[in-house]
Amino acid sequence: MSIQFSHTKACQIKLPNGKLLDLSRPTVMGILNITPDSFFSGSRYQPDTQAIIDTTGSMLNDGATFIDVGGYSTRPNAAEISISEENDRVLPVIEGIISYFPDTIISVDTFRSEVAKEAVKAGAAIINDIAGGNLDADMFQTVADLDIPYILMHSRGNPATMTSLNQYTNITLDVIGELQSKIFELRQLGVKDIIIDPGFGFAKGPKQGFEMMRNLTAFQILDLPLLVGISRKSIIYKTLNITANKALNGTTALNMIALMNGACILRVHDVKEAVETVKLFEATYSPLYS
Q1: Is there a smaller number of Cβ atoms within 10 Å at the N or the C end of the chain?
Q2: Residue 256 CA: distances (Å) to CA of 28, 249, 260, 272
Q3: CATH number, domain containing residue 112
Q4: How far apart are CA 158 and CA 141, in angstroms?
Q5: Which of 44, 52, 33, 128 lies closest to 97, judged by CA?
Q6: Is 6 part of a structural domain of the chain?
Q7: Catalytically active residues, by annotation
Q8: Which among 238, 236, 213 is positioned nearest to 226, based on CA atoms?
């Protein structure tokens, strides 16, 4: 079997502190949801609690390169909250993490430019936009002005409408084409550091997700770092007829397939298991990194 890895090529992004982060080898992003209604109950945290600091410490000890902090649940049909409430959820958490763990690379999971601005002021180093700029016309310019790495995820519509917007001619080529258009916009504004996320589960059903996973190497044409967020999603638990709480094993299986097909960042709820997956992947294919 021939394996081709996009992450065997040197790839760096520049963080706001001027440091260069090497993404030429797989890394892990730990999910920290400051929400009461995220689809996976094990990832829900309330602001200003010791549990957040303890969880962050555990994720970092387990090998997370990033901590992804989000205050707005984007599961299908999630309740809408105000910008001020989202800020109230995420800003104290970002500041708290930075105070305890100053070197932590925090990404803020938001589609709102105003939240992104405040989060970067508080210490976030990356903007992770699940809407790919579709839900805030000012997001791309904000990213350019902040001169900060941007995770561009493919999606359609909003949490209330995305499940009905899953019509594609060819799921992989259509997603690549839509991402390509966004990348062009970002480049025109001067955005240098872009990470792409195909958006598993966002305006895509399980069958479409599996097809995209099989063809994940096609995303190498974009020549950008590839993030895969498959952790405990419905593509796993609906296929296995289980719940999200029991979807860790399935997550690990698909994470390994993602790595074999070019993913260089795994966004996960369970950092230890993902880091172990990366270690076993590298041990298997280590000659390809020499």
Answers
A1: N
A2: 12, 11, 6, 14
A3: 3.20.20.20
A4: 20
A5: 52
A6: no
A7: 233, 267
A8: 213
Domain assignment of residue 17, yes or no: no
Cα gap 125→121, rounded to integer Å: 9
CA atoms of 269 and 232, how far apart (whole Å): 8
Closest CA relative to residue 112, chosen from 102, 120, 104: 120
- In order of 12, 77, 160, 268, 288, the CA distances from 163 in angstroms are 34, 9, 8, 22, 39
Domain housing 277: 24-289
Report the C-alpha gap between 217 and 197 in whole angstroms.
13
Phi and psi at 29, nearest 5°, equal: -110, 125
Task: Count up the domains in the chain and report the number.
Answer: 1
Within a domain: residue 12? no
**Contact yes or no for 257/3 (Cβ under 8 A):** no
- The DSSP bridge pattern shows strands 12-14 and 20-22 to be antiparallel
Rounded to an integer, what is the distance from CA 263 to the centroid of its chain? 11
pLDDT digits (tens, 9 = 90+) for 179-204: 999 999 999 999 999 999 999 999 99
pLDDT digits (tens, 9 = 90+) for 260-289: 999 999 999 999 999 999 999 999 987 655
13 domain-assigned: no
